[in-house]
């Protein structure tokens, strides 16, 4: 994410927190010192704080900026958890860690002869946050299309480096594919979808055979929702302080490791055969990273549909997927119909 995009997400948190402090409340999204710093910089008027921080956030101290990153993660988790499906899920373990579980939702309709096609979802959260429960209406939407829906829980920073996170995603896909018959899944119609950091992980396991091995050739397709880490080194070279605080703990500073964890660097065949890459139209880094990945995949023979989505944010492109009347839902529905 660019700094301005992060600040736009956070200004509501800051304004509410500062207003609560002014009224004697106990909101603690930021420390008292950081809130005082914001007040000194931008005053106490909520609307003025919003506009001021968009322009002057770089003037805040490094500790206050670090607190902003943490507050953004908390806000993202709260937003993503507000709406979820009420459908029952079948829980499947694919490893010994309590987080290594899959929630599988299958349509109520009769099972086709080869099983239901399956959408495997990888949540976002900056490689540090998030959970498999953050699915909103997606299970209902995909089940209504005749598709099974599986949400993957994977280990996170600081306990698991990105390499292990990708290995977790691959292990979950392999477990679902290898037990397809018992689970009622068509193993030849498995599509992987990820949002944000989950888009990076979905792209990585769908381009680098080190993770899925021979199972990579069985994937039917990939859907990416507003990722920006497809070429890690390029993203970090352009990074501001807030972006670096997200990317450096995940990818470090070693160029060789950054390249190993960059899907664009693995775009030479073999790859999944079909790709739908969506990005927020106004978000420059996601647009650039998505276009570069799409071009590399196309050069290697993959079928790629690259789409900019207007009137959405980094969060709503994912959160509103499956609701009627929005473009990302229509694009995904058409992609599924073609696979």
Structure, explained:
Helix content is 46%, strand content 15%. With 339 residues, it is an alpha/beta fold. Helix 1 crosses helix 4, helix 4 packs across helix 11 and helix 6 crosses helix 8. It contains 15 helices and 8 strands. The N terminus is likely disordered. It has an 8-stranded mixed sheet with strand order 1-2-4-3-5-6-7-8, with helices on both faces. The longest helix has 20 residues. It folds into 2 domains: 77 residues, no CATH class; 252 residues, 3-Layer(aba) Sandwich (Rossmann fold). A hairpin with a 7-residue loop joins strand 1 and strand 2.
What attributes does this structure have?
single chain, 339 residues, alpha/beta, Rossmann fold, 2 domains, 8-stranded mixed β-sheet, 46% helix, 15% strand, globular
Topology:
Blueprint: H1 3-22, H2 32-42, H3 46-56, H4 62-81, E1 90-93, E2 101-105, E3 116-122, H5 138-144, E4 148-152, H6 162-178, H7 180-183, E5 185-195, H8 197-205, H9 209-212, E6 221-225, H10 232-237, H11 241-251, H12 255-260, E7 274-280, H13 284-299, E8 303-309, H14 316-319, H15 327-337
Parallel strand pairs: 3-4, 3-5, 5-6, 6-7, 7-8
Antiparallel strand pairs: 1-2, 2-4
Q: Into which percent range does the helicity of residues fall? A: 40-55%
Strand fraction band? 15-25%
- Secondary-structure arrangement, i.e. CATH architecture of the largest domain: 3-Layer(aba) Sandwich
What structural class results from the helix and strand content? alpha/beta
CATH topology of the largest domain: Rossmann fold
Shape: globular
Q: Strand order within the widest sheet?
A: 1-2-4-3-5-6-7-8
**Low-confidence runs:** 1-9, 15-27
Overall number of domains = 2
Average the pLDDT over all residues and give the rounded result: 88
Order of helices and strands: HHHHEEEHEHHEHHEHHHEHEHH
Annotated CATH homologous superfamily of the largest domain = Alpha/Beta hydrolase fold, catalytic domain
Please count the helical segments: 15
Rg, rounded, reads: 20 Å
Number of strands: 8
CATH class category of the largest domain: Alpha Beta
Q: Summarize the biggest pleated sheet.
A: 8 strands, mixed
- Measured between the Cα atoms of the first and last residue, the distance is 31 Å
């Amino acid at each position: 994410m660019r700094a301005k995009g992060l600040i736009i997400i956070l200004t509501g948190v800051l304004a509410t927190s500062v207003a609560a402090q002014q009224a004697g409340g106990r909101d603690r999204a930021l420390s008292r010192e950081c809130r005082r710093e914001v007040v000194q910089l931008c005053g106490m008027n909520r609307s003025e704080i919003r506009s001021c921080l968009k322009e002057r956030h770089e003037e805040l101290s490094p500790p206050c900026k670090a607190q902003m990153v943490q507050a953004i993660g908390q806000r993202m988790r709260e937003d993503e958890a507000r709406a979820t499906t009420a459908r029952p899920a079948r829980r499947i373990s694919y490893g010994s860690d309590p987080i290594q579980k899959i929630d599988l939702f299958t349509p109520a309709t009769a099972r086709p002869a080869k099983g239901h096609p399956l959408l495997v979802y990888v949540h976002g959260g900056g490689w540090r946050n998030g959970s498999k429960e953050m699915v909103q209406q997606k299970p209902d939407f995909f089940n209504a299309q005749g598709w099974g829906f599986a949400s993957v829980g994977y280990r996170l920073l600081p306990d698991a480096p990105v390499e292990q996170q990708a290995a977790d995603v691959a292990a979950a896909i392999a477990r679902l594919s290898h037990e397809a018959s018992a689970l009622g899944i068509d193993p030849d119609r498995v599509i992987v979808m990820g949002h944000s950091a989950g888009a990076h992980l979905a792209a990585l396991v769908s381009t680098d055979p080190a993770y899925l091995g021979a199972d990579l050739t069985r994937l039917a397709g990939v859907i990416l929702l507003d990722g920006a880490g497809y070429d890690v080194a390029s993203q970090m070279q352009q990074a501001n302080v807030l972006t670096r605080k997200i990317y450096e703990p995940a990818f470090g500073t070693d160029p060789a490791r950054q390249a190993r964890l960059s899907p664009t660097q693995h775009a030479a065949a073999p790859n999944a055969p079909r790709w739908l890459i969506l990005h927020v139209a106004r978000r420059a880094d996601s647009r650039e990273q998505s276009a570069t990945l799409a071009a590399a995949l196309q050069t290697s023979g993959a079928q790629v549909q690259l789409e900019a989505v207007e009137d959405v944010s980094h969060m709503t492109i994912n959160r509103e997927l499956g609701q009627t009347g929005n473009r990302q839902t229509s694009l995904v529905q058409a992609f599924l119909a073609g696979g």
